[in-house]
């Protein structure tokens, strides 16, 4: 043992000794981060012996993989820096500065991973990559949620202490000189480490357990971030199970109950014919940020944080069995506007070549409506302005409000009450112009840092999620009361639906309870109070609105009018950016990369799921929906 320690200690005296220090630092920081996150996930983690062993063994491989990429700049520096200056003061300063940056980055990353885990219960993924694009909103959110200056001061201090303690070890590398030829040999040897990682390490290794927390803890945040950065788009045919296209088309045609005009057509185009005259009613679709069904008293919550929504639920039609397509706002916007199953990778809202698609806004526009998208933040966020403005909507965002009209704002946007004031102004304008309107309004207040104007509700601002939910509820109630005074109110259908749940974390890959969202359809002159209890997908919302208005139209939607849905047709789609779920007949089919498919019995209350044998017809139906949706988007077959 003493000899081994002595050999390791002697290794620091060679030119490439600092690389060992960097690797040890990264692995130590990663191990400590893993332990902290494991403690945080104590109740949800599967504490079996083999699970624990795998978490740390597989985790150590990913830690070394991350280290292998991180040391590349240091390898190049140690290789090229001239020997005659290597023992001088300049090199010592450069090495100390380098290691100070490394230590600070590792500690900063550990804190960032903890915050990210606290919000999403996963390691870095494509969401973290997205956040790099929208630094203003993300940094603003962090500054408004945490004492950033204090944290940075502490991190800088701790980094300085650790670097100072390591200074002698770092400087030992100047003890034994090394010629350029020998340095070149060692440089190539060290570079084998990242090359080995690139060709041999698989991101799938961490998916070893039925417990999702174990899988996430087996990863390394830095490695996962790099993987997400390079794999933000996933080609369906390359990564997922497929069936012959003709077979997929036949399954979808049968399920959507239509016969194509031309049997050679490879799309979902069909004529939807109403059996009653059209109702030229206005439509206001409010998609509420992060509103889980279990926040509402109508779904069993006893905290009394949604009095206005609960009142509307009693006066309108409450959907008790509606499920969101995904876990982010852009997925909700995609489902509500395009009525298409979620495709792997990024939401279509943020992709290239996403203009002139078959959207709800375009259908309303073809009927003579003014289609609007009204957002409380800046429309450039998540590509909202670009997407909606090119797909049949006129976009209005916070820029349309003057400073005097804003009672409160945070990094995500103006307070919801100001958003609704703006919305009323825009809708009044349409009414005065004798133009029927379809307005999709997207709220922002129910989001960390959970801040809003004081004095509106009995929960102080910046205290947590419940306060933000109650404030959003207050703003919606105020909007409906003010809308009742408008001449257009009696001819307007209000649809209030969540974009996604507040949390997507669960013990399994797709916890179904974390996709359960509320929806209320409210129109006293059109809809009788009641409950709609059929299983409903978020992509069905648009076609169901059109069905209520008795619209006849040429459709490409994958969603359908739920009021005309047969019992055996009930199904929903849920997803992450790479796991695609299909629920039907109380069974959940999950499609994953590497052409994996599994079938489960989900518990709709707890989110847990039990694996069972797959049924070919159900598996094929799931594949057909996702395969055709991906094909139509990528082949430009979903155009308006």
Would you write up a description of this structure?
The protein is of the alpha/beta class. 45% of the residues lie in helices and 13% in strands. The protein is built from 23 helices and 18 strands. The strands form four sheets. Strands 2, 3, 4, 5, 8, 9, 10, 11 and 12 form a nine-stranded mixed sheet that branches. It has a five-stranded antiparallel sheet with strand order 14-15-16-17-18, covered by helices on one side. A hairpin with a 6-residue loop joins strand 17 and strand 18 (609-612). Helix 3 crosses helix 11 (180-200). The longest helix is centred in the first third of the chain and has 32 residues, at 89-120. The radius of gyration is 28 Å and the shape is globular. The model has no long low-confidence stretch (mean pLDDT 93).
Structural features:
nine-stranded mixed beta sheet; five-stranded antiparallel beta sheet; 18 strands
Please compute the radius of gyration using only Cα atoms.
28 Å
> How large a portion of the residues is in β-strands, by DSSP E?
5-15%
The overall strand count is: 18
Residue-averaged pLDDT: 93
- Percent range of helical residues: 40-55%
